[in-house]
């Protein structure tokens, strides 16, 4: 079965990520869940204030299962991809992304309990937006920096009909996408930091940057395939 060739160090990384998720899940079930009130914040608006509430039991999936499921998916992807062997050429990038995303999922899992217990504010400073969108923005910046080094595969990177059909289209599209993703990431971080000033405007600006960036990369790849861009 195609996939990553693991060194001892690689195995240690995945074991550490699994241990992090299991420790987080245990702490959530044994400490956070009993300590939380019956009704807890489950959704936050553009201004960072909690605007949705639910039963604490409903948070178990996001708080316990989701980080473990995402880690399992990230581990499985190179083994399920028909071109999984190519992951070995950018193994450090993929494992770095997997580690960062797993940490993000664990952090996100604790937003509700920490808010319910008063450690995070539910009004005023948009700390939740700063955590979530700030982390997402940094992930996009990181991806943008390494994007040109991602080799053709079916599950990680800019996967379009034209990039998958032509290795040269893949290479040039990812080289083009790198700076675009960096700009998208910076825009996302900026939107998070300034969300308390004009929350709706910042949300719109972030969505425009993200959707516009994705559309621009797709258009470039298409025009490259059609021969309009050389």
Automatic annotation (TrEMBL):
Q: Which domain of life is it from?
A: Bacteria
List all membrane-crossing ranges.
Answer: 12-33, 60-80, 92-112, 124-146, 176-195, 201-225
Sequence ranges assigned to domain DUF1648 in this UniProt record: 23-63
The signal peptide annotation in the UniProt record is: none
Question: Keyword Membrane on this protein?
Answer: yes
Asked if Membrane is a keyword of the record, the answer is: yes
Q: Name one Pfam family in it.
A: DUF1648
Q: Write out the entry's keywords from A to Z.
A: Membrane, Transmembrane, Transmembrane helix
Supply one GO BP term. Answer: response to toxic substance
UniProt name for this protein: SdpI family protein
Give the species this sequence originates from.
Candidatus Olsenella pullistercoris
